[in-house]
Amino acid sequence: xxxxxxxxxxxxxxxxxxxxxxxxxxxxxxxxxxxxxxxxxxxxxxxxxxxxxxxxxxxxxxxxxxxxxxxxxxxxxxxxxxxxxxxxxxxxxxxxxxxxxxxxxxxxxxxxxxxxxxxxxxxxxxxxxxxxxxxxxxxxxxxxxxxxxxxxxxxxxxxxxxxxxxxxxxxxxxxxxxxxxxxxxxxxxxxxxxxxxxxxxxxxxxxxxxxxxxxxxxxxxxxxxxxxxxxxxxxxxxxxxxxxxxxxxxxxxxxxx
Amino acid sequence: xxxxxxxxxxxxxxxxxxxxxxxxxxxxxxxxxxxxxxxxxxxxxxxxxxxxxxxxxxxxxxxxxxxxxxxxxxxxxxxxxxxxxxxxxxxxxxxxxxxxxxxxxxxxxxxxxxxxxxxxxxxxxxxxxxxxxxxxxxxxxxxxxxxxxxxxxxxxxxxxxxxxxxxxxxxxxxxxxxxxxxxxxxxxxxxxxxxxxxxxxxxxxxxxxxxxxxxxxxxxxxxxxxxxxxxxxxxxxxxxxxxxxxxxxxxxxxxxxxxxxxxxxxxxxxxxxxxxxxxxxxxxxxxxxxxxxxxxxxxxxxxxxxxxxxxxxxxxxxxxxxxxxxxxxxxxxxxxxxxxxxxxxxxxxxxxxxxxxxxxxxxxxxxxxxxxxxxxxxxxxxxxxxxxxxxxxxxx
Lengths: 257, 396
Hints:
The complex is a heterodimer of chains A (257) and B (396).
Chain A: E1 5-10, H1 19-28, E2 45-49, E3 52-56, H2 65-69, E4 75-77, E5 83-85, H3 95-99, E6 106-107, E7 116-117, H4 123-127, H5 133-137, E8 143-147, H6 148-161, E9 180-183, H7 205-256
Parallel strand pairs in A: 1-9
Antiparallel strand pairs in A: 1-8, 2-3, 4-5, 6-7
Chain B: H1 2-8, H2 11-32, H3 35-38, H4 49-60, H5 64-74, H6 84-105, H7 114-117, H8 124-148, H9 154-188, H10 206-232, H11 239-266, H12 278-298, H13 301-304, H14 307-337, H15 345-368
Helix pairs in contact in B: 2-15, 4-6, 4-14, 4-15, 5-6, 5-9, 5-10, 6-8, 6-15, 8-9, 9-10, 10-11, 10-14, 11-12, 12-14
């Protein structure tokens, strides 16, 4: 298996220059005007929160909710780490948008043939051995790209060597872990980071138990219903036979007379 | 000429014309201009009225087809046979409206067939799609005799009906299982949105809640439809069957409210009901309309045996059910998504168009097909409508 890649975003280092945003927009051929929040033409934005600059971007979960939710399997976790979208499969149901715990996917509401839009961690570029446009553009190493395990070690190193950091990597365990990590010198709660709805459990576990029950329900339900039908039929037969029995003597007496 | 036009202009015809005019315009905007022009959906509210009203209410209120066919075919409750065909027809048309609504909902409607060939077993929505497609086929099969028996060719008719009878029980059984699955999976759709759905509605047993509430609501819709058929389409049916349905609805609602409250208490969400939030308000509206008021009303013999009172009790059940589904699909999501969604009029107009088409189809089916048992005495006086016909079984 290919080495898992990841991205580390250091909120302490970010200077809010928007280079990542602009680089992303240029790569995708969008207008480079900054946007206040994620959109179908802004796959990453730098938001100002609590006096800090916080990048919003797809976290590329290890076990993505969007991918489990998609009815046609248009979203998948690739071997290198990016969660990628196959526009050829998508039917536009938008269930991925409802499922994503971070509300990342965006929709082309104005188009007649609309698709889902989100960051794909520049999957094509990393496959070719490169790095995403945003990390390449970052002038202060606030967003860096690398192998997942090495980045994790680097993040812990930053936290250990500088006591101003919050001793926590957001994205390491949230909802089963992600491929985008955040470190910060301000508690994540104060920056608008919500705890993952499932804690450290992957999101797809929420539906797995309900879906896993379906074969049981079919087998049990089928058996019970068949049994009930059998009882109903049996009753009917018995009632019919009894009716014939009681009718029989009358018939004989009818013939005699 | 003017007089003729005037006499053709009844109130209902005007209403239908308005519904169709508005609906066709809304359809044009949806398919030729796009989502932005036809809906108030947004990245914060990707699913709105079409899912809440069209799909969740459409499927839920069509639950009677499998309920009554299970009762008659599998449990031998012959008493309900006279309303069997009507229930199957209502379910069939309900599922048809959902299938049409599906084309409005998805962004790329020409790819409607993708879930048939592209599978994702981990997706609740995939299971819902497959179950609904299969069950619509089952309903078509269950309803087919009503059309086939009108065929003019005797040999063909009898061959098909003979074959139909042979596999009917198997199909009914499959239909009951499929329905049980997707009625609950519609609630299961929201399981993955933990943290987004308000705690008054989110529970790991949401799918069970959807299942338990769909059956009484589906029955209530059947009672309403039959009452209206009796009033305006000269249908005669033993009214005591509908009274019994009323009792059944009451019992099913008691079961539902028992588990709903148990679930709320077990999740520790009960406290949210007493906060001063709009969610709490919607919650109490739902609790009043879906279980509380109908359970109270239907516990009275005087309500159950009076057609008009029974009708209005069932109307409250259906309204409460719709409040519940819209609560889950819209109101429960708004605060977590930081948005306020009010559907655009074109969203409502296109939903109403599809529903109206279903209602009109029901009317024509009742007039031209043998949906209800034929009574020996045709053209009975109005008051004999409610009289018992001795439970004469219909041929279904």
